[in-house]
## 1
Amino acid sequence: MLREPTPSQIFVLGLPKSGKTSILSVLFNRVNATDTLYLETTTDITEYEMYAGIKAYDYPSQSELDGGVGRPDPRLYYNSRACIIYVIDSQDDVRHSVDILTEIMETAYRVNTDIRVNVFIHKVDGLSRELQTDIHKEIEHRIIKFVDTEGYNTSMVSFFLTSIYDHTVNEAISKVSQEVLPHRPYLDTILNTLCSRSMLDKVYLFDTMTKTYISTDFLPNDTQTFKFCFDSIVVLEDMLSMWKTLQDSFGDDNGDDDDEESEKYRPEKRSVINLKGTMTIITYQVNRRLTLFCIGRPETMQDSTFIEYNAGKAAKGIRKVIKMDMNTSPYTDATLNSGHINEILREDIMSIVTDSYPPQNDMMDHY
Ligand SMILES: Nc1nc2c(ncn2[C@@H]2O[C@H](COP(=O)(O)OP(=O)(O)OP(=O)(O)O)[C@@H](O)[C@H]2O)c(=O)[nH]1
Ligand SMILES: [Mg+2]
């Protein structure tokens, strides 16, 4: 049965100069954080395309009548895969910004009581730790009190301390985009199976272009581990561009690299990063943009053949899921359960092994 396509949309709102365009251009246009100083005021709604068809919209500032904040047509909130990011400049008039946010929430809840609101307490790089905590507490207290008093669901509001000068904004966008990603339950199931069966501490599926992750296993997220992955992408990017340069200089271009769906990603595109003997990250490229980050203790990661075998199987499953058209799937977000997911991914999940010695005759074609 064909359903109406449900777009995954993120509306980025906030007072003028709060940092909306900076966040989006650092992430999606690879603009250097320092170059955002020269950004001009946004005058039109600007669309940014994320991975897997998710779209983020930068709303321009409006007249004083609207409190200076551009707002989407309220009908757009009537979408189960839409959410709001509200950017508050933590170095500016926080109270005024919170007042405008509560007005926006009132409008949004009239249309969709389940819409997720993500509050970015932004530009925290200029504040001491104590001040960050105080401002966070004040903003959270006022907003949660408002939502609670109005009788709405407080668990649908999240708070993030962010800055474009470090990994915090990438981590926040990772969490927000997962909420609207239709493939999420499938990807999380694959990553969780890979993590638990390979005895890893954590697995992320990173979109290396934006340095955000689109899926992870079910273990709680740890900011320190995310930061290690984030830092290592920079190293990895240098290595990959070196690899590409070498490949070009030898004239070895068989087109694999440009094929997003290619099944033939090469095992040698794997890299191992050791962090002070306490943590090892092994990465495997899934396709041109997506890379699996497998993290564990060095002793667990010694048998990398085993992890490589499992990561290869997981990568196959991920490519299959990314190709799936969610609008023709017989399940809606509400009806999908772990039984359906296991049924669809049975072959991919079953082939991820728990034994540390993968079947010998299967070793050569796991990519
Ligand atoms: N210190 C610091 N400055 C930031 C950060 N993010 C953005 N800025 C600065 O904030 C200023 C305004 O940023 P913009 O991205 O243009 O803000 P905007 O919300 O898009 O503004 P309008 O388009 O006018 O609504 C720029 O000078 C940025 O360099 C941050 O994380 N830390
Ligand atoms: Mg702007």
## 2
Amino acid sequence: MKENRKVLLVHPEISRTKYNFAGIIDNEPLELEYIWAMLVQEGWQPYIWDGQVEKVPFVKRLRELRPAVVYICGRTRQENFMKEYAAVSKKSGAVTMIGGLHAQRCYSRFFTGYIDYVFTGFNTDPIRDVLRGDSPENISSLCWKRDGRWVMNRAVAHDIRKLIRPDRTYFYEHSDRYRYLELLPAAQVRTAYSCPYRCSFCIRNRMNCGVYSQRDIADVVDEIAQINCENIYFTDDDFLLGEERLEEFIRLVREKNIRKRYVCYGRADFIAAHPGLMRKLRDIGMYYVLVGIEAADDGHLEAYGKRSDNSVNTEAVRILNSLGIYAMGLFIVDLDYTAADFLNIWKWVRKNDLRHVAVSIFTPEMNTELIKEYRGRLITRDPSHWDYLHVVAKPSRLSVRGYYFCYHILLISLFLRAWRQGIYDFIDYRFFIGSMVKNLFGFGG
Ligand code: SF4
């Protein structure tokens, strides 16, 4: 009988409510596309099922394909779905594997009977080695079972320069779906792992064992040139890092005459200190820069270890506005906020003429020092609430109800402002504002 070489790579849906921003930002399943490329090299037959875009339900797809192996990745908020899909895959007789950002830090949450392997790094080699049948004893960044008991092999930081190029077959098949706001389609490119900064609320700097690793920029530009898509979204936690690297990026993009639009994350202090460089980036197509403004006051910025202040944030937004680069200001509403603090964010946004704004509820990440600090205040243990739209720990100066009320008033005000300015014309404003109004007196999300 022919050996079953099918591997189903799964990225579950983000949420099963309609209030999930699907159709606004839908990310290409880049992590799975790296694994796909490795699997093809190894003679396996890969398939992707991405819950963001698939119309066929997961179980139906599983029954149709009958894969030998199912690999599932996701973030904290997707943990329940990851487990649900792993359980049903195991029942079908497949080997079950878990990986991705959440598993890197919270691997032990997946130590169940229906999961066979948990991968704790970015590297695709451990997946390859397990599939080759190598002894798990010798595979790093892997959790596995010896005689029914979980064994945690040491996680090892990966050098991103060793990563192979992703296979974008699935992206091209669904290019009507993967987007960043109005940029449709938008392909994702990763040029670095982790982040060298240490903002206290952030878990991204713990990825890759806390080791920052960058690709050679010439390799990045070569990849971009080959992507058949006009919009490129850099998924790095901070793309605006290293003046020389960025100057080289600009030079190579010009030299190769690449004409695309770019989206990236960048720190306000870098933007404020490099207006000339930002101008050059604008000239080659920088379109959106996502900037962690975080707070409207210096006290919170200091408490977060942001190594930046309000005047720097103001200057960064001023520079981006003056250059015509869209600044997407990312705010965190802290659990110690009063109604006045929520109002201050609204005032800051208006004063600084920030058109694009995203607001996250302060969320102590699992398996960090921060969650230990908040343990006694947790009001939920449901991982789906770790989506930055839910209050997971008791606010200190408002009731949970009062906090949600202020949060949704802020969101509604920002959405109405965006509606008036016509900046998200591709979305159904009425639906989102209706959902927020409902949440005013409910719970959020
Ligand atoms: S918030 Fe941004 S700059 Fe700070 S650690 Fe996280 S990714 Fe790095």
